[in-house]
């Protein structure tokens, strides 16, 4: 069997592992610092460890489980990475240069089973969940992208919005969050981390009780059940009424703002009446909700959809603002590369299948 990535262990799990192997607790702290502060990529570089400890680590773990396949760099500084996993599956990770820092969008699954009819991520069905180590490794390789170039920059923000449904891989997601948030490691603040879900109601309720101050975003994309069911299969299991009940519980327990993601699809969900329905849906939650209007990145396999006209997006925005809804039209990133989640991966898989 392939050795697991040591990135998959939280600090508490790493301490427990060393104790289990008759080693002192402080060894875990040393290894943790080598991994996340000095960011070495080989156990042999951990120079304050004995040869026996290094051998023990090498016998049980690898550090980096990912192989870089493709890097696409956009004119605006966005970088999209295609990584290969040990089982030859491929995933995407995106670096976005924001005014407030370096933000990385990570993937949590190989493929996706949520079934959103406009999305490139679901073109290939879910093969498996990523391990916590494979999710952490995405952050580490992006950070190495800076380190290797001598750039004094660090990953400062995380969005868990790449391929897959994060809450469908909940335990690995939580291990990932605890690892990157650890103050003696990468120290990425909880309020600089956002997790997105398409609306898995039981997990939203569970997430409300996790104690982390991590931000939550919900992919809503429609203001009523008819439209949402037509574009998002998950709405059959968790219609808007159930989703909003879970949202109310989350807001009551955490008092933290939720962002609603809303992809603008021409003549599907972008009419002024849709905007009014959305405003009505959120009218009792306006103080703790925020709407992110997202220009659609067309996907050739979903040619029934096109992006909303700019004038329609502005009309939609105006209706929300007049109703007191906090909202923004999201800035686009990487428009000159394969911008939509899953596009680069899908393209590479098709290319590989043609050469076989």
UniProtKB/TrEMBL annotation:
It is found in: Cytoplasm. Pfam families: Radical_SAM, RlmN_N. One of its GO terms (cellular component) is cytoplasm. Residues 98-330 form the Radical SAM core domain. Its cofactor is [4Fe-4S] cluster. One of its GO terms (biological process) is rRNA base methylation. Belongs to the radical SAM superfamily. RlmN family. NCBIfam families: rRNA_mod_RlmN. This is Probable dual-specificity RNA methyltransferase RlmN. The lineage of its organism: Bacteria, Bacillati, Bacillota, Bacilli, Lactobacillales.
């Amino acid at each position: 069997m392939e050795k697991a990535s040591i990135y998959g262990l939280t600090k508490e799990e790493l301490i427990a592992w060393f104790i289990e192997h008759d080693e002192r607790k402080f060894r875990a702290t040393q290894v943790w610092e080598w991994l996340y502060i000095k960011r070495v990529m080989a156990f042999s570089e951990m120079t304050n460890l004995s040869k026996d400890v290094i051998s023990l680590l090498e016998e049980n773990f690898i550090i980096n489980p990912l192989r870089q396949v493709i890097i696409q760099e956009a004119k605006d500084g966005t970088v999209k990475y295609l990584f290969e996993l040990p089982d030859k599956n491929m995933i995407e990770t995106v670096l976005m240069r924001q005014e407030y820092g370096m933000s990385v969008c990570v993937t949590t699954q190989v493929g996706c089973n949520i079934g959103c009819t406009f999305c490139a991520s679901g073109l290939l069905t879910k093969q498996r969940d990523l391990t916590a180590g494979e999710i952490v490794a995405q952050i580490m390789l992006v950070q190495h992208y800076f380190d290797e170039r001598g750039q004094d920059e660090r990953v400062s923000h995380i969005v868990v919005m790449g391929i897959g449904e994060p809450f469908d891989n909940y335990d690995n997601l939580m291990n990932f969050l605890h690892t990157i948030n650890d103050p003696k490691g990468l120290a990425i603040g909880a309020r600089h981390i956002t997790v997105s879900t398409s609306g898995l109601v039981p997990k939203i309720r569970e997430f409300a009780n996790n104690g982390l101050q991590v931000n939550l975003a919900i992919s809503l994309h429609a203001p009523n059940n008819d439209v949402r069911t037509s574009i998002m299969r998950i709405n059959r299991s968790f219609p808007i009424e159930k989703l909003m009940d879970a949202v109310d519980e989350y807001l009551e327990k955490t008092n933290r703002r939720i962002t609603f993601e809303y992809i603008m699809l021409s003549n599907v969900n972008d009419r002024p009446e849709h905007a009014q329905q959305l405003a009505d849906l959120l009218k009792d939650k306006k103080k703790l909700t925020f709407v992110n209007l997202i220009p659609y990145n067309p996907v050739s396999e979903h040619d029934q959809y096109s992006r909303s006209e700019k004038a329609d997006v502005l009309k939609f925005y105006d209706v929300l603002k007049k109703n007191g809804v906090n909202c923004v039209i999201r800035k686009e990133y990487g428009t000159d590369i394969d911008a939509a989640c899953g596009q680069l991966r899908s393209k590479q898989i098709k290319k590989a299948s043609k050469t076989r």
